[in-house]
Amino acid sequence: MESGGGARRGRMVIDPKVRQVGFVTPGEQDGPAGVSSSSAQVNAPDSPAPVMIPPAPRVAVPAAADHSPPKPAAPVPIPPRSPPLPPRNFDAEDEMPLGSYNPGGEGVLAGSPNSSYGKASSEKAEIGDLSPTMVAELNSSMMEMSLERSKYELPVPEKENESTADVISERVEVPAINNNEGPENDARQRKLKDRTSKAERRALQESQRAAKEAARASAAVAKAKPPPQKKDGSNEKKGVDKKPVDKSGEKDKKKEVVVPEKDKRKDAPAPRLQFDDEQKVAKARRRAIVEQTTETKHRVELFRHLPQFVPPTQLQALEEKYLQNDTMHIHPAVYQVGLKYLTWDIVGGNARCVAMLEAFKEMIRDYTTPPQKVMSRDLTAKINSHVSFLSTCRPLSISMGNAIRSFKLKIGKLRDTLTEAEAKSSLVSHLETFAQEKIILADKEIVKHAVTKIIDGDVVLTHGFSCVVEMVLSHAHSIGKKFRVVVVDSRPRLEGRILLRSLLAQGLKCTYTHINAVTYIMQEVTKVFLGAASILANGTVYSRVGTAAAAMVAHGYRVPVMICCETYKFHERVQLDSICSNELGDPDALVGVAGRKEFRELVGWDESEHLRLLNLTYDATPADYVSMIITEHGMVPPTSVPVILREYRKEPIL
Amino acid sequence: MVAAAMPDLQAAVDDFVIKLKRRQVEGSLATAKSTVLLLRQVVSHQRIPSSGPASSLIDAVKSVGSRLIAANPMELAVGNMVRRVLHIIREEEATIVAAQVGVTPVSDSDDDADVHGVPGLSAVALAAANRTALRAPSLHNLLESLPTSAGANVEPVPESDTKSRSSDKNSKSWKLKHGVIDAIGLLLGEIENYHSEISEQALEHIHQNEVILTLGRSRSLLHFFREAKKKRSFQVFVAEGAPRYQGHKFAKELAAMELQTTVITDSAVFALISRVNMVIVGAHAVMANGGIVAPVGMHMVALAARRHAVPFVVLTGLHKLCPLYPHNPSVVLNELKSPSQVLDFGEMSDCLDGTDGSPVHVVNPMFDYVPPELISLFITDSGGHNPSYVYRLVAEIYSPEDH
Question: pTM for this one?
Answer without folding.
Answer: 0.69
